[in-house]
Amino acid sequence: MGRMEIWINPACSKCRSALTLLDAEGADYTVRRYLEEVPSTDEIRAVLDRLGLEPWDITRTGEAIAKELDLKSWPRDEESRDRWIAALSEHPKLIQRPIITADDGTAVVARTEEAVRDALSR
């Protein structure tokens, strides 16, 4: 098991649970508080590639800023991809969390204990 990076918002209970589990398993990881250390559009692109997901798949559409931007009306297609990625970088609150990137080039959205264990088994 290599080194992992986990993107967290410390106020998020699912993030804290994921950290607790990583610690219990003795995982080697670094924490990125992505609201303070905001990911660039390139970093978001790279994480999406690793997740095998589209930007709208990791967007928290329930956030107030999502309603302000009217994200629900944005098309979910190749042409709109950059617009979504730009929004995630400009408003990192919109990024689903926690995201764990593993050494083997994969990533998971670790919202369940299962998903965290999946990252640990990579």
UniProtKB/TrEMBL annotation:
Keyword Nucleotidyltransferase annotated: no
Membrane-spanning residues? none
| Domain of life per record | Bacteria
One Pfam family matching this protein: ArsC
Q: Which UniProt keywords apply?
A: Oxidoreductase
Q: Which Gene3D superfamilies match?
A: Glutaredoxin
Q: Which family does it belong to?
A: Belongs to the ArsC family.
What's the protein here called? Answer: Arsenate reductase family protein
